[in-house]
């Protein structure tokens, strides 16, 4: 049986499969620099986070209309449901679209067309988390939060993503304070490529409830102890870590050591169209390659619901 799980670390733009990208390019009259889906897949050889981000932002050029965002989200939800995902907390990157002349309304309304009917169509409940691009300015993040105000009934929380090193969490103190005042939940990527200090800073300065990735906490035993004590959920993405070379091979992934240390780990797909697998594929890979027991896999699935922003007891029990 497929293990029911929640997905807590998923960039909707990272679910853009080459086939859909070419379909949308045709629909919107966008010229792509790759000859076809095979040539595009060939380009998915990344050296690090930045080399991936360059392609990820480039391919977004095909996303232009509400219908494009709806189709993108629908395709993800269908695939996720087939792999046992019952609840998905979905990141989106509005600044990457606004910079191309695609407005906040187009993105949120388009995604919402798919998310609003996801429970009936796919059996997947959803939440939307708006991410700020950390390699853009703090002022741009604040302007983005301002633009999101008409849509806050659809947005559960804020996150922080894009190029990590050199862009510490504290840069976004003011916008996270403003988000908290608006009642938004808070998460942030930290410790993917950046140092363990960014993880502590995201907790202390931004007040985040979860850390996205958090892989590099293992370099700081005192930080591990704190994360265990405070039961801070980490949204790990094992196949992403291999493709972006945060680890040499999946066999070297610290997930078993992290679980043994008592960390509250979850397993997620990050950008599944680029990294070779959706949530269930990530679970399968860690079972096969890291030899995780059924009990450990169940713990990961249980953690995913406990660490989610599902609030309703009913809703949680129903999962
Ligand atoms: N945006 C999309 N995927 C990301 C990742 N793995 N890290 C940081 N920013 C991202
Ligand atoms: Zn991510």
From TrEMBL:
Organism: Streptomyces thermocarboxydovorans
Catalytic activities: adenine + H2O + H(+) = hypoxanthine + NH4(+)
Keywords from the UniProt entry: Hydrolase, Metal-binding, Nucleotide metabolism, Zinc
E.C. numbers: 3.5.4.2
Cofactor: Zn(2+)
Name of this chain's protein: Adenine deaminase
Taxonomic superkingdom: Bacteria
Record Pfam families: A_deaminase
InterPro entries: A_deaminase_dom, ADE, Ado/ade_deaminase, Metal_Hydrolase
Family affiliation: Belongs to the metallo-dependent hydrolases superfamily. Adenosine and AMP deaminases family. Adenine deaminase type 2 subfamily.
Binding, substrate: 271
Positions of the catalytic residues: 192
Protein task: Catalyzes the hydrolytic deamination of adenine to hypoxanthine. Plays an important role in the purine salvage pathway and in nitrogen catabolism.
Binding, Zn(2+): 9, 11, 189, 270
Bound cofactor: record note: Binds 1 zinc ion per subunit.
Gene3D superfamilies: Metal-dependent hydrolases
Site (Important for catalytic activity): 213
Membrane-traversing stretches: none
Record domain Adenosine deaminase: where: 4-316
